[in-house]
Amino acid sequence: MNKPSIVVLGAGYGGIMTTTKLQKMIGDTEADITLVNKHDYHYQTTWLHENAAGTLHHDRTRLPIKDVVNFNKVNFVQDTVVSIDPDNKVVKLEDGELTYDYLVIGLGFESATFGIEGLGENAYMLNNINSARRIRDLIEYNFAQYNIYKEDRQDLITIVVGGAGFTGIELVGELANRIPELCQEYDVDPSKVRLLNVEAGPTALAGFDEELVEYAMNRLEEKGVEFRLNTMIKSCSENGIIVEKDGEQEEIASKNVIWAAGVRGNSIVEESGFEVGRGRVAVRQDLRTPDYDDVFVVGDCAAFFEEGAERPFPPTAQIAMQMADTAAHNLKQLVNGQDELEGFEPDIKGTVASLGHTDAIGVIFDDKKLYGRSASIMKKVIDNRYLLKLGGVGLLLKKGKLDMYH
Ligand code: FAD
Ligand code: NAD
Q1: Cα(312)–Cα(295) distance, rounded to whole angstroms?
Q2: Which atom of ligand 2 is nearest to the CA of 260?
Q3: β partners of residue 383
Q4: ipTM value for the complex
Q5: Does the pLDDT at position 92 exceed 90?
């Protein structure tokens, strides 16, 4: 009898954790496992704001897939997924195609631009290593240019971050740390630099603990962040953005517009005909799609609703990793001819967001609030725990944030 084949698409948190679990749980004689990813590295999306600001080199964030996936047990295909045909069980790649018996979709997120004029063409998105590196280079280049011009080119040293969700807040936190270094490096007067965080809603981090949000905003304001709340980005051009507040429009000139105001699931999933909401498939409790018994979705391409809930869990790395456990367990069952699958049970251990090097806010164990250095240490503990889980002590020592106090 032919061995069933399992194909995992994407080596983000969901995909790589599913693969490393499968390689431990499923023997060579039970199934063939294939992992497809655009690059030969996995990256920690949760550190991209540091790469974009230039406070952490992107080589710290990415790690070779071969260091954590055993290529004797898993067939690794470095290629780009173009489309999925679930009726014929075929995945089209840029450079060929693959057939499968079971598929795991873990293609992650993209920036959602909500149809805002000019945003896709002119704003800089933060969603992978390449886009983060481009933001770092853009800002450095614009600072380097500032002194070349005779006229005061304020737009070159005005940085606009759209959205004050967790991504926007973490990014302005890092930028606030980086700007003094950039000023020193490129002879720019720090008092001239503007760092704006534009948010459509009445507060940053809507829905998060109010006391911690206040702490975060105060700390960031002290470091030079200008919050523009109740202010909607309406359009973006190569010269900056137009915002609207209370029906009044204003133009903000900036050559550094970074859009961090929302995400959606990878559009390949929608384009392949799966039914989605904001690019995410509303998966069954066992993480399979509603229509296909052989297709699982993990991470940001999946919307998981607890039974009876109106809203899905937010797309986070924490959820993506936990989904990997369930998907791997259920795949093992199916491969072994068992049709009893387990339901996904999210276990939210907390949320911690960084505000720059040694500052952060967080809530852990349901209601324990953390802020300042203790929250920052907790954030590093969470990051290190992930590396330990993924690649053991070796990976932790190579890539971990071991200096807790910096
Ligand atoms: P991703 O991490 O998006 O990975 C997708 C993978 O698929 C990548 O390897 C990519 O190269 C690959 N891929 C994409 N398209 C293709 C294709 N066509 N062909 C082949 N391969 C492809 N969440 C938290 O829980 N805690 C945090 O502290 C946190 N911080 C964050 C900070 C930032 C700056 C951002 C942007 C997000 C943060 N998140 C955090 C959210 C978290 O990063 C995402 O929820 C998580 O990355 C989703 O994981 P994933 O496995 O779905 O996919
Ligand atoms: P988000 O959707 O959580 O926040 C986007 C923000 O942008 C919202 O506050 C929204 O009001 C604002 N916005 C939308 N359109 C706008 C417009 N036109 N003008 C101005 N503001 C606008 O997105 P995110 O922050 O990228 O987070 C995505 C996911 O990643 C979330 O699930 C989040 O929890 C997770 N994440 C977690 C962490 C962490 O745990 N430390 C860090 C980053 C991201």
Answers
A1: 19
A2: 26
A3: none
A4: 0.98
A5: yes
* 5-111+264-347 and 119-261 have identical folds: yes
| Ligand number with the minimum distance to the CA of 163 | 2
pLDDT cut 90: percent of the chain above it: 95
Res. 229 pLDDT band, cuts 50 70 90: very high
Residue 361 CA: which ligand is closest?
2
Tell me the C-alpha distance between 37 and 43, whole Å: 11
Identify the CA nearest to 100 among candidates 31, 54, 153: 31
Type of residue numbered 193: V
Query: Helix 317-335 crosses helix 13-25 at what angle (to 10 degrees)?
Result: 30
- Rounded Cα distance, 61 and 133, in Å: 11
Mean pLDDT of 253-279: 97
Mutation test of ligand 1: which of 62, 169, 316 has the most ligand atoms closer than 8 Å to its C-beta? Answer: 316
User: What number is the average pLDDT over the span 132-158?
Assistant: 96
Q: Where in the chain are the domains?
A: 5-111+264-347, 119-261
Best of 13, 170, 199 to mutate for ligand 2, by most ligand atoms within 8 A of CB? 199
Cα of 128 vs centre of ligand 1, distance in Å, is: 8
pTM for this one?
Answer: 0.97
First to last CA, the chain: 56
**pLDDT tens digits for 335-354?**
999 989 999 999 999 999 99
* 44 Cα–ligand 2 center, Å: 18
pLDDT band for position 26 (cuts 50, 70, 90): very high
Distances (CA, A) of 364 to 34, 245, 354: 36, 35, 14
Q: How confident is the model at residue 28 (pLDDT cuts 50, 70, 90)?
A: confident
- Fold for 5-111+264-347, please state it: FAD/NAD(P)-binding domain (3.50.50)
Rounded distance from Cα 12 to ligand 1 centre (Å): 5
User: In CATH terms, is domain 119-261 a member of 3.30.420.340?
Assistant: no
Q: Is 12 in the pocket of ligand 1 (CB under 6 A)?
A: yes
What are 136's two structure tokens?
Answer: 């770092």
